[in-house]
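Retro notes - structure team

What went well: the batch runner handled both jobs without manual restarts.
What didn't: labels got mixed up in the shared folder, which is why I'm recording both outputs here explicitly, each with its sequence directly above its tokens.

Job 1
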Amino acid sequence: MSLSMYQASVPVFIRALNNLSAILDKAAAHAEAKKFNPSVLIQARLAPDMLPLSFQIQTATDHAKGCTARLAGIEIPSFPDTETSFPELKERIAKTVAFLQGVSAAQVDGSEERPVTIKRRDGEMRLLGQPYLLNFVLPNFFFHVTTAYDILRHNGVDIGKRDFIGNL
């Protein structure tokens, strides 16, 4: 049996986003236990020229919903990047997961050859569905999810590989 475009995308995004939401719960609990403002973590970064935790989460959700919508041939939901608290970031993740759950396998499957155009600051990028998913979206999505995890781990949140991977 072959792996479908839906199986390689939507369930993967949902699982990683749910794990990320659980990690944010641990981050909020860490800030509360250590008695510091959670915004310290939300604005944390690993390097001075890096974007903060909030951006990492916003971008991970953007990749998941953008990819799914493009592969399904439907409109991408737009979420403003205004989250400044753990509850707001978790709500963004929940809205993304709800959108993903509303897209059926029938809408995504067969999109391997669907042309995808992405508007970027430096012009347009054109790919077919399968290379778009495998070579652009999945690496970018997991880069931002991993970076969010790394920022929190670096700042003392008690999380490990099991939190990132979740229960199998």
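Job 2
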Amino acid sequence: MSVLAEETVAIAAALGRHARAGRNLRWTVIAWYAEAGRPVLPGQLAVPEPPWPAAREALVWAMRRSTAHRLVVAARTAAAAGEAEQDAFYTEAGRMMGRGHTGPVHPDALRRVLEDPAAELDDQGEDRRRRRGAVSLAAAAVMGAGEVGGEALVDALATLTPGVDWNDVAANARTAEEAGELDG
């Protein structure tokens, strides 16, 4: 009588949980990879990691499909092409970021709805700020912080990561901008 190794059973179970008809196998590998990193619950088998080359290829594939990656590629292309292309980058980036959900609702907007059940969850302004923040951050990362300016850069960081105290960063950005060292 043959018996499957526990590791084989755990891998088969993980693949069974994540594979779907018509779903790209790379998404399944990413889900398997994420599950392998979770703590093991009592009475369950530890899920071993998928082979690294398969996990790496799936992660790179997913990253290249992301809006964030396309935004950085567009910024790099614009930075290498010159000033006219840099201006066109903002138009293209606005179009690129104008689609889809930009992340979780801002905690302040959610708090308003929880405190007042009659209030509506209108997070359009925050959504627009997040989109502009992502564009500013990509432009600053590729073309230099001076491209967007210190205030816009810190505003983008604060919008994309609420709850962090950005006052010291804002003061440092102002000082660097006044000294002409913001790009550095």
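One thing worth noting from job 2: The radius of gyration is 22 Å.
We'll revisit the folder naming next retro.
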